[in-house]
Request: fold
Amino acid sequence: MSSEATDIAVVRENLKTSGDPRAERTRQGLFDAAARLCADNREVSVSAITRELGVSRSVFYTHFADVSDLALRMQEPLFVDIAATANIARTTDPHAAMLDSQRRLVGHFAQHRALYRAALRLPGASATHRIQEAMEPPIAAHISDVGAPRGVRANIASRYIASAAAHLLAAWILDEIEADEETIANHLYALMPPWMHEPTNHRQR
Reply:
């Protein structure tokens, strides 16, 4: 990475954590512009997003490296929210809570399909890996909370599960798999290790 690119990356990170309301409004505006493009089934690109919001491309690049970076930032709070909601719901019906989590996850990717398709098609991009990385922490936290079978480590299990889910979603977004939302959600649920939503039978002693 060049010195200039490193400097821009530092600026982006500082803006993200600064708490500056102007920076937050700009980021949210870019998120909303991308969401409107997706809702209208229009092409998503840096040029399209900045035209939709009425700002320059330099404004976009001050906050995000590319559309993949924007997509990642959009999904981070979603994963946290899904995990928090599921953690509450699983106390009454862990199976339903897990299935609902998968439906919400798939629904988000379906709603923003054009954005994720653009991100996944970037040359040399690693959007699938970045989706996986964003999924891993909440999955690891869930595993640590419910308790894994003896000998299963949360960090290894969370990487395995996140990788499988991210690659399946990427293949679906890119139309390599023909299926509707409910089918994908049900497969993610069915292929999840049963102890993920049957914790009482498998807690470590």
In short: The two ends are 47 Å apart (CA to CA). The first helix runs from residue 3 to 18.
